[in-house]
Amino acid sequence: MAAALQTLGGGIGITLHWIAFTPTIEQQATEEQKKKWLKLAQDVAIVGAYAQTEMGHGTFVRGLETTATYDPSTQEFVINSPTLTSTKWWPGGLGKTANHATVMAQLYTRGKCYGPHNFMVQIRSLENHQPCPGVTLGDIGPKMESNGNDNGFARFDHVRIPRENMLMKFARVEADGTYVQPPSSKLAYSNMVYLRGTFVMSAAQALASATTIAVRYSCVRRQSEMKPGEPEPQILEYQTQQYKLFPQLAAAYAFWFASWFMTQQHGSITGSMEKGDMSGLAELHALSAGLKSYTTAVTARGIDVCRMACGGHGYSHASGLPALFGGAAALCTAEGENTVMMLQTARYLVKCFAQSQAGKRLTGTVAYLSAVQPSPVAGNRNMSDLGTLVAAFQHRAARMVRHAAMQMQGEMQKGKAREDAWNSCSVLLIKAAEAHVHSFVVRNFAETVQTVEVDESVRAVLTSLCQLYSLYGITEHAGDFLKDGYLTGRDIDAASSHLSAMLARVRPDAVALVDAFDLHDKILRSVLGRYDGRVYEHLYEWAKKSPLNKSEVHESYYKYLQPFLKSNRAKL
Ligand SMILES: CCCCCCCC/C=C\CCCCCCCC(=O)SCCNC(=O)CCNC(=O)[C@H](O)C(C)(C)COP(=O)(O)OP(=O)(O)OC[C@H]1O[C@@H](n2cnc3c(N)ncnc32)[C@H](O)[C@@H]1OP(=O)(O)O
Ligand SMILES: Cc1cc2nc3c(=O)[nH]c(=O)nc-3n(C[C@H](O)[C@H](O)[C@H](O)COP(=O)(O)OP(=O)(O)OC[C@H]3O[C@@H](n4cnc5c(N)ncnc54)[C@H](O)[C@@H]3O)c2cc1C
């Protein structure tokens, strides 16, 4: 339905209705309010946008300028866009599709500001879809990709909504204007945590799509001579092609398993929060922010590697890879810009490190921080053993977290304010947080392949893939592992040769591993990745449908080229 609307309309998109607007009602509305709006949203009797970001603020939610001022005389909130930069800007579906929006605005009551809260605002008439009085709407214009989605803008000129339109599951405003505190001010951000968690699966699916396309095409495409006089080989026979594609394929599986963990964690922690136990919220936020940032960044880069591995046809929209890349690039910015999200994870790690220094036993995804010994125990390690690889990644992360935290402590001891010390160490902090998330993904991948209920022959293939993913990470970041002597040069050489062996071992199963994603041609939308492998015939058919081929001589010849040629010939 959503996809149909998105393709049919060519300018409307209800993606955000499903992934942001409806979940916000589910997570932030009272039972009363759900009775009023949730079924309408689920049945698409209303279409909604999630209107938080403004022209002037996206990351800094506490800096949003839209206001919601409570008027006790009428028991209404007045929604207003006081400045140009307060214009809501970017929300998907806001331009032309949505007739409702959850609007994040600074809540004012009795002259005091209580920070950003969500409000349900009808923005278009249900009769004729015209903007409601006081509401100005429009599309923000063409983007890098996803132009089927009308990311829009909205301005509110003192628009009045009933008090009951404030989503009041956590915080409330009583009829007389009294503000009732939520258990945590961050619960207003809970849907962002949820959405970031879903991005991990979006990244896995996107990387799975890209590797399916590139691996299948690399079995169809024959090019060059590996040995003089021999037939042109499949390009997947080249080790360099395997080195490009198989780490991306392994990452797709790693992220797929990481998203299982994320979903399970989100469910159990929000379950406890429903019972008033907020203790897991900080870890959930740090994990979802870090995983979202890490997986979307690796995915965007990985899709472009797949695109380049397909040569010229990879650059054609026929391959489906440019659109995939554009979508993945969007997820690096949307739902929390990646740098900012990784800094949130770093903030949590620094806090946990301080707690472990004070003797607290850490648990959950940071437990390893207190378990890992600072002084490395060098020695010939078995670089094909998953336990050894996991321990190496945890040691690397613990060392980098400790280094960044100690660096920050040092800056503060020199008299720097905490915020300045934070800023001057933020590159170290980002790298430490990335190493932490990377070690989580490796550990989770290893634990999943060892416990998932599959046939032993399948487990053997998944284990090779997990080794490949880990060895690739070690060789790509060798310096981090060598720095304190935890790994030696010999270990890194061993890792490189094991990696080469893994490339050769994965090769015979590569097509089966991408087929296992079970992505239908209609989902892949790629001539190169077709299940039947009939690339060339369909590439020709695809090209013939290009609008430029509607006429043999394009009108631009008569308008521009013909007079231009004529005048140049006249000068000869
Ligand atoms: C792979 C591709 C496949 C194809 C895809 C298909 C097509 C794709 C194309 C197109 C569709 C894309 C889909 C679009 C969807 C996107 C929708 C949106 O974008 S909706 C807007 C999102 N906006 C943000 O996420 C704002 C980000 N900013 C923030 O969240 C905050 O401002 C933040 C966290 C950066 C700072 O918030 P502070 O300033 O209030 O908090 P501080 O001062 O940093 O920290 C205070 C305490 O609060 C905690 N905290 C912060 N946020 C928290 C949270 N969410 N939950 C729990 N605690 C939190 C912190 O951990 C900290 O805790 P202690 O004090 O250390 O204990
Ligand atoms: C495809 C797409 C769909 C979107 N859909 C929606 C939607 O449906 N609803 C919605 O509300 N929003 C939506 N957004 C907006 C999105 O949430 C914001 O773009 C995002 O939160 C980033 O905020 P920003 O654009 O203000 O970037 P900024 O925060 O201005 O980032 C610009 C640069 O500043 C850096 N920076 C900012 N703060 C810090 C900091 N504290 N420390 C270090 N560096 C910092 C960033 O790292 C980045 O490099 C969408 C965006 C895109 C691209």
Based on the model shown, name its key terms.
six-stranded mixed β-sheet; 572 residues; single chain; three-stranded antiparallel β-sheet; binds flavin-adenine dinucleotide
In short:
It is built from 20 helices and 11 strands.
Structure description:
Its cofactor is FAD. It is found in: Peroxisome. This protein is of the alpha+beta class and 572 residues long. Helix content is 55%, strand content 10%. It contains 20 helices and 11 strands. Strands 1, 2, 3, 5, 6 and 9 form a 6-stranded mixed sheet that branches. A 3-stranded antiparallel sheet has the order 4-8-7, with no helix packed on it. α4 runs parallel beside α6. The N terminus is likely disordered. The structure holds ligand 3VV and flavin-adenine dinucleotide. Ligand 3VV binds next to α2, α4, α6, α8 and α9.
Write the layout of secondary structure elements.
Elements: H1 2-9, H2 15-28, H3 31-42, E1 48-51, E2 67-71, E3 76-80, E4 88-89, E5 100-109, E6 112-122, E7 135-139, E8 152-156, E9 159-162, E10 172-173, E11 179-180, H4 190-220, H5 239-274, H6 281-309, H7 311-315, H8 321-333, H9 338-357, H10 367-371, H11 386-413, H12 418-424, H13 426-451, H14 456-476, H15 478-482, H16 489-506, H17 510-515, H18 521-524, H19 535-544, H20 555-570
Parallel strand pairs: 1-5, 2-5
Antiparallel strand pairs: 2-3, 3-9, 4-8, 5-6, 7-8, 10-11
